[in-house]
Design a protein that fits this description.
The protein has about 750 residues and is of the alpha+beta class. About 30% of the residues lie in helices and about 30% in strands. Pfam families: VWA_3.
C-alpha cells in the first residue's frame, strides 16, 4: 500500500482522539483506545473501509456531543484520513466455475465531524485475486451516486481527464473513490460489486475475500445491534459431487443440488469480522471431465450471436502422466528491472528450476542491449545442471542502469529460443518470457511467432508471457500468449511479483493434455473464441474458454487432444442450456482479448466493438472511462434552485469524477522503457513531494506535541472540582485586574 496513504490514516487516528464519546468506557474498546498506535501494516485496508478526509482539524468533533476542545490552528497537508465507524455490513457471493461475483452492502456514520461542518469521504475497496470492479452505488444525505462507463467525447483528452481524476486503483487490488461534501453525523450507504478469480491447487477451488475489519471501526455504543450477514452460492457448472472444506465463518447450508450449494451466515455481533472470508471445495472425478454451456443473448445485446462456455477440469487422479518438457526462460535484465523486481524474478526462477521433473530440458536467455545464454544447447534437468544454472543466474542476471531493451533484442531472443527447441514429438516446448518494457516492433514479433507456431511439425512452441509494471504492453503479451497456446500473467505492482509469477508458472506446469481442438466449431456459420486457441490442460490449471457462435450445436461434442503418453484422446462433452450469467462473468476477459486484437490489427471497427461491449457490461476499457456520477438530485434540478454559495459548492461536487487510475493500463510506454524508469503502478511520485511531506509532517508533529495534544492530555487528568475552583479563582483575579485598570485610567479625574 502507498506510504502516503498509511501515513494519512496514522495521522487520522491521532486526530480522532479529539472526538469525545462521554464517560470513559470499560471494555475492549477503551482498552483499544488506551493502547499504542497500530503498526503500519495494520493500517492497510483488509476489508471495505470509509475514511473522513480531514483538511481542517478544527472540524473534528463528536456531532452529537460537542467537547469544546481547544481550537487547532493550521490545516492538514496532505489531508488526514479518519476511519469511520461501521453500523452494518452484508455480503452476497455468487461463485460460478472459477469466477466469483461479490456484492457488498454496508452503512457507515461520519462520527468524527461537527454536525455543522462537512468533509469528503474516501472509500477503499480491497478485492481478491484478479479483482475487477463491476459497479458502485452510494447514498448520503439525500444524494445518490453511482459509477457509469462513458464513451470519450471529442473534447476528452488525457490531460483534461488527469485533472478531473479522483479515484481508481490505489494498487491493483485496492479500488478507491471519493464521496464529496458529507455532513457530520450523516450516514453513508454503500453497495459495491466486483468480480474476482478463484485459485485452483491440488484439485481444489479456493476463494478468499477481504473481510477483516479493524477494531476501531466498531461503534462504541452497545445499544444498537451490529448485524453481519453473508450469503454464499456455489455453482460449479458440472453435474458432479461437490466436496467442501470447513469454512472459516459459521455458514449454515441452505440447499444442496448436484453441482450447486447455498450457504447463509447471519448474526448480531459485538464486533465485526476479524478474519477474511475463505472457502474451498473440490469437484470429484477420477478422470478428465468437462462440458459446454450455451445461452441466448438478451434483446439489448449488441451481438445477437449465441454465447457458449467450454470447460475442462483435470480431475483428481494423482497418477496421471505429465508431459516431459523443453523449457526456456527468456528474462529482461534491463536497467528498469534493477533491485527488487529482478531479485523477485531470480527467486522464482530458482524454485522453478528445482521443480523441473526428470527428463525435462531447460535453458536460460537474459537480454538487455546484449543477449546472454546459459548454454548453447538445451541441458537435461539434472541436479548438477540446476545447481550450475542457479550460479549462472546469480552472476549474470544483473541489471545495469544504462542498459535498456533495444528494438530487435526481444525479437532476436525469442527467435533464438525457438531455434534451440528440438522439434521432438516426445517433448512439449515451452518458452517463458518475462519483461517490464515494450519495443517498437511488437506487431512484427506477433506475426513471426505465428509463423513459427503454424510451421512446427508436431507440437508447436508454447509462449507464456509475464508483464511487470505499467510500462510494458500487456495487450501485446496477452496476444502473443493467445496465438501460441501459452498463458499470460502480470504483476502490476512490485510487491506482487513473486506471488503472481509463482501462480503463472504453476498454471503452466505439469501439462497432461496438449493440442486441444473442437472440430465441430469449424462447421458453424460464425464462430469466435477467447482465447483464440485452447491452452494445454495441466494438473494445476483447468481450462475455461468463452465465445460466440452462429448456427446449431449438437447435443454433445467431441474434444480431441494428445496425452503425455502420446496417445490421442477423445472427450465427449454434453451441450446444455444454462442460467449462469456467461456475459457478466466473462465480460472482462472478452474485453481484454478484443482490445488486444484491436491493437494488433489497428482496427477502428474492433475498437468500436470494444466500446459497445464496455458500455453494455459497464466494465471500463482502454477506450472508455469509469466515472462516479451524481444521479439524484441531478445538476439540472440543482440549477433550478436559487444560486447560493452552498449550492455552488454542491454543483461543483456534482460534476463527474473520473475513476480512471489503474482501469486503463495503456499499450506500453516506449519513453519509460528507453529511460529505464523503475517499475511503478499508476503515477510516479516526485521526490519534491516526498521532501515537502517529510518537512510538514515533522513540523506538525512538533506543534502537536508542544501546543495541543500534551495540553489536552494534561487537562483530561485534572479533577473536576479542582478545575471549577481554578476557573473561579482566575475569574476573581481577572475582576481585580479590571478594577485596578479602571482606577489607573481614572486616577485624578472626577
Amino acid at each position: 500500500m502507498d506510504e502516503d496513504f498509511t501515513a494519512a490514516v496514522q495521522r487520522g487516528l491521532k486526530l480522532s482522539k479529539r472526538v469525545y464519546f462521554g464517560k470513559p468506557q470499560v471494555g475492549p474498546h477503551s482498552q483499544l483506545m488506551a493502547r499504542s498506535s497500530p503498526e503500519v501494516s495494520e493500517l492497510v485496508p483488509t476489508a471495505p473501509m470509509v475514511y473522513a478526509v480531514i483538511l481542517h482539524p478544527e472540524i473534528v468533533d463528536n456531532p452529537d456531543l460537542p467537547s469544546y476542545q481547544p481550537y487547532v490552528h493550521g490545516r492538514c497537508d496532505p489531508p488526514a484520513l479518519i476511519p469511520l465507524q461501521m453500523k452494518e455490513v452484508g455480503m452476497e457471493i455468487e461463485s460460478y466455475m472459477d469466477v466469483a461475483l461479490v456484492t457488498l452492502r454496508g452503512r457507515w456514520r461520519v462520527h468524527c465531524v461537527m454536525g455543522s461542518k462537512s468533509c469528503d469521504c474516501r472509500v477503499v475497496i480491497p478485492m481478491g485475486e484478479q479483482g475487477s470492479i463491476l459497479g458502485v452505488e452510494a447514498d448520503v444525505g439525500g444524494r445518490s451516486y453511482s459509477t457509469q462507463v462513458i464513451q470519450p467525447e471529442g473534447d476528452h483528452n488525457e490531460e483534461k481527464v488527469s485533472k478531473l481524476e479522483d479515484g481508481g486503483f490505489l494498487k491493483p487490488q485496492f479500488f478507491s473513490f471519493t464521496v464529496p461534501l458529507v455532513d457530520g453525523g450523516s450516514e453513508i450507504y454503500l453497495n459495491v460489486s466486483w468480480s474476482q478469480k478463484l485459485s485452483y491447487m491440488h484439485g481444489q477451488f479456493s476463494i478468499t475475500i477481504p473481510f477483516k475489519f479493524p477494531e476501531y471501526v466498531t461503534p462504541i455504543t452497545k445499544i444498537l445491534p451490529k448485524r453481519e450477514k453473508i450469503l454464499f452460492n456455489v455453482n460449479t457448472a458440472a453435474d458432479k459431487e461437490v466436496l467442501c472444506q470447513d469454512p472459516n465463518h459459521p455458514l449454515k447450508e441452505k440447499a444442496r443440488h448436484m453441482g450447486k450449494l447455498s450457504f447463509l451466515y447471519e448474526a448480531d455481533v459485538d464486533h465485526w469480522s476479524r478474519k477474511n472470508f475463505s472457502f474451498s471445495y473440490s469437484v470429484y472425478s477420477s478422470d478428465i471431465f468437462g462440458g459446454v454451456h450455451t445461452q441466448s443473448p438478451s434483446m439489448h445485446d449488441s451481438d445477437q450471436r449465441e454465447m457458449f462456455c467450454l470447460y475442462l477440469f483435470p480431475g483428481n487422479f494423482l497418477n496421471t502422466k505429465v508431459f516431459k518438457k523443453e523449457v526456456i526462460f527468456v528474462v529482461d535484465i534491463s536497467g528498469s528491472m534493477r533491485e527488487n523486481p529482478l531479485e523477485m524474478v531470480k527467486k522464482v526462477l530458482y524454485k522453478a528450476l528445482l521443480e523441473l521433473t526428470p527428463g525435462d530440458y531447460f535453458d536460460i536467455i537474459a537480454f538487455n542491449e546484449d543477449m546472454h545464454l546459459f548454454s548453447s544447447s538445451l541441458e537435461l534437468a539434472t541436479k548438477e545442471a540446476v545447481e550450475e544454472a542457479n550460479l549462472w543466474i546469480s552472476k549474470n542476471l544483473v541489471s545495469e542502469d544504462e542498459a535498456h531493451i533495444t528494438k530487435l533484442l526481444l525479437s532476436e531472443s525469442l527467435n533464438k529460443a525457438i531455434s534451440l527447441l528440438s522439434n521432438s514429438r516426445e517433448l512439449l516446448p515451452h518458452i517463458f518470457l518475462i519483461t517490464d518494457g515494450c519495443v517498437e516492433d511488437e506487431r512484427n514479433i506477433c506475426n513471426s511467432m505465428r509463423v513459427h507456431v503454424t510451421t512446427h511439425l508436431h507440437i508447436s512452441p508454447r509462449i507464456s508471457t509475464f508483464g511487470i509494471g505499467s510500462y510494458c504492453n500487456h495487450y501485446f503479451l496477452r496476444l502473443l500468449a493467445s496465438i501460441s497456446r501459452g498463458l499470460y500473467g502480470a504483476a502490476h505492482d512490485p510487491d506482487s511479483i513473486e506471488v503472481e509469477m509463482q501462480r503463472w508458472l504453476r498454471r503452466a506446469s505439469l501439462p497432461i493434455t496438449a493440442n486441444i481442438e473442437v472440430e465441430v466449431f469449424d462447421r458453424l456459420d460464425a464462430f469466435e473464441m477467447y482465447p483464440q486457441r485452447i491452452p494445454d490442460l495441466s494438473i494445476g490449471c483447468p481450462q475455461i474458454v468463452f465465445g460466440r457462435y452462429q448456427g446449431k450445436l449438437p447435443d454433445s461434442i467431441k474434444v480431441k487432444g494428445i496425452l503425455a503418453n502420446l496417445n490421442d484422446i477423445d472427450i465427449d462433452l454434453k451441450v446444455q442450456k444454462t442460467d449462469i450469467p456467461l456475459e457478466r462473468i466473462f465480460a472482462k476477459q472478452h474485453i481484454d482479448q478484443l482490445t488486444a486484437q484491436a491493437w494488433f490489427f489497428e482496427s477502428k471497427q474492433l475498437e468500436e466493438k470494444v466500446i459497445k461491449l464496455s458500455l453494455q457490461c459497464r466494465i471500463p476499457s482502454e477506450h472508455t472511462y469509469l466515472v462516479l456520477r451524481q444521479t439524484r438530485p441531478t445538476i439540472q434540478e440543482m440549477m433550478a434552485k436559487k444560486p447560493k454559495k452552498a449550492n455552488v459548492e454542491k454543483l461543483e461536487a456534482a460534476k463527474d469524477r473520473y475513476l480512471s487510475r489503474g482501469t486503463r493500463i495503456g499499450f506500453g510506454d516506449l519513453l519509460a522503457t528507453a529511460e529505464n524508469y523503475s517499475v511503478m503502478f499508476g503515477n510516479p511520485k516526485s521526490p519534491e513531494a516526498s521532501s515537502v511531506y517529510m518537512v510538514t509532517d515533522c513540523c506538525s508533529d512538533l506543534c502537536d506535541c508542544a501546543c495541543c495534544r500534551c495540553c489536552i492530555n494534561f487537562c483530561s487528568k485534572l479533577n473536576d472540582q479542582f478545575v471549577v475552583l481554578m476557573a473561579q479563582l482566575c475569574a476573581g483575579i481577572a475582576c481585580l485586574a479590571c478594577f485596578q485598570c479602571c482606577s489607573l485610567c481614572c486616577n485624578g479625574s472626577d
